[in-house]
Amino acid sequence: MSGATHIADPPAEPLASVFRRCRPGLVRLLTQRLRSPAAAEDLAQEAYLRLAAASVPIQNAEAYLTQTALNLASTHARLEARRAELRAEAHALLWEGLEEPDAERVHLAADELQRAAAAFATLPERTREIVQLVRLEGFSAREVAERLSISSRAVEKHVAKGTQALAAALDREVRLSRRR
């Protein structure tokens, strides 16, 4: 070893300390984006958990925390928008043009929903998961493909297969119920 001395890097700030220091600004930023202090708190916590669970050392924990929180906020906002769309669609399908549903319509709708849930439960687990992510939660095929480490084409095939299976199952149920 030569006579040069090596100056050690200063010790990294503990992650919990970074989070405590960054949390107020992070929650403020997320609240501005989401308009929900509760969701902002939840997503800040989730960002910290992801930072703490990172499998590689993070050079800039504050930047990682902020970017992770912003990514989570984007996903949260997209999911909330999709849920609002689904609620509006369901409302339009179920209630527009109707004053008060009679007991028979309520029973038929509940029966149809039960048949759809039963048909959904019969799908293979992977197909069910993909259909749920794409059709119900609003993720794109590319996002699901990245999340599940499969190709976008495989996601599209699962969605098509699941949609066809559900339509066929519901069609069979309708034909059977008409025979009764």
How would you portray this structure in words?
By secondary structure, the chain is mostly helical. The chain folds into two domains: 14-81; 100-180, Orthogonal Bundle (Arc Repressor Mutant, subunit A), CATH 1.10.10. It is built from seven helices and no strands. The protein has helices at residues 15-34, 37-52, 61-95, 103-121, 125-136, 141-148, 152-179. α2 crosses α3, α4 (103-121) crosses α7 (152-179) and α6 (141-148) crosses α7 (152-179). It is elongated, with a radius of gyration of 24 Å. The N and C termini lie far apart (91 Å). The model has no long low-confidence stretch (mean pLDDT 85).
Low-confidence stretches: none
Number of domains: 2
CATH topology of the largest domain, anyone?
A: Arc Repressor Mutant, subunit A
**CATH superfamily membership of the largest domain:** Winged helix-like DNA-binding domain superfamily/Winged helix DNA-binding domain
Query: H/E order of the elements?
Result: HHHHHHH
Structural class: mainly alpha
Task: Examine the secondary-structure arrangement and name the CATH architecture of the largest domain.
Answer: Orthogonal Bundle
- The percentage helix is over 70%
Strand content: under 5%
Q: Roughly how many Å apart are the termini?
A: 91 Å
Number of strands: 0
* Overall spatial form: elongated
Number of H/I helices: 7
**Structural Rg:** 24 Å
Give the quaternary arrangement of the chains: single chain
Question: Average pLDDT, to the nearest integer?
Answer: 85
CATH top level class name of the largest domain: Mainly Alpha
Question: The biggest beta sheet, please?
Answer: none
